[in-house]
Design a protein that fits this description.
The protein is of the alpha/beta class. It is built from 11 helices and 11 strands.
């Protein structure tokens, strides 16, 4: 009887191991891994790249004079200690500002130039456009797409993402070939799956808190690639993998990468999807 129990246990362990081998996850640094580096600065992208990271998420806004700048917030107060509104400032004015850690404000053309020299990169350009008019959106989306794609390196994936469905519609109208992703701050639901499909997106990013494995599988059956957030660290990464996510953002990308390589060898990181 004891031998039978041991055999059953061994079979179960083998089955689990086989299942683990199949996991592939696109791991990427949220704002350049904001808990480990100076967020959304060239220093952050270079620093994570040097550590082995090949996936990134960043945020794009447009200045008063029509320049595309990398910044999550409307204001530079949190990151630079100066209450300057991006949309009310010019490139020349922003160029005089340094972050609290001493790094210059980064512009999209500068980031794209840096990315162009690196092969096999995954990048999400999040469009922070909820307050923009339809006219502004057309200029913004067209400029962002052309600037990013003109220097996209070989074997790389560039996504244009947003919580703002209007921006995704405009991007698709101007550039039907654009790879877009709809982001929502809620768990995966039928409503969000249907909305992503209606927008012409093959990708959906939802909050992992409250998301079930069954809903991830339902999104997969609908033909969607699933990204889950937030990704604060190791525990969030483990949860995202368990839920069946295809892509996971991370604020501690290097720490998570090193942990996964050591403790989760069945998970293949940085799979372009």
């Amino acid at each position: 009887m004891k031998r039978i129990v041991c055999l059953m246990f061994a079979v179960a362990m083998c089955a689990a191991a086989l299942a683990q081998e199949a996991r592939e996850v696109q791991h990427f640094a949220h704002r350049g891994s904001r808990y480990e580096f100076d967020e959304n600065t060239l220093s952050a992208f270079q620093g994570t790249y040097d550590k082995g990271i090949r996936g990134y998420e960043t945020d794009v806004r447009i200045t008063k004079d029509g320049e595309l700048v990398i910044n999550h917030d409307k204001s530079l107060k949190r990151t630079a200690g100066v209450d300057m509104i991006i949309e009310e400032s010019t490139r020349k004015e922003l160029k005089k500002v340094k972050s609290l850690q001493g790094n210059p404000v980064l512009f999209v053309d500068e980031l794209c130039k840096w990315l162009s020299k690196r092969d096999s990169i995954y990048v999400e350009f999040e469009m922070k456009s909820s307050d923009y008019s339809e006219e502004q959106l057309e200029v913004y989306c067209d400029k962002l797409y052309k600037m990013a794609m003109a220097k996209k390196p070989a074997n790389s994936t560039y996504l244009f993402t947003s919580f703002d469905a209007r921006a995704l519609r405009v991007m698709k109208a101007l550039h039907p070939e654009a790879d877009i992703m709809y982001i929502v701050g809620e768990p995966i639901s039928d409503k969000h799956i249907n909305k992503a499909l209606e927008l012409g997106s093959k990708r959906l990013a939802c909050n992992m808190n409250g998301t079930s494995r069954a809903m991830v599988q339902k999104a997969h059956k609908a033909g969607l690639i699933v990204s889950l957030w937030p990704g604060g660290g190791i525990e969030d990464f483990q949860l995202g993998v368990a839920l069946g996510a295809d892509a996971l953002c991370c604020d501690k990308a290097v720490e998570v990468m090193e942990f996964a390589k050591k403790n989760m060898p069945w998970v293949k990181l940085s799979k372009h999807r």
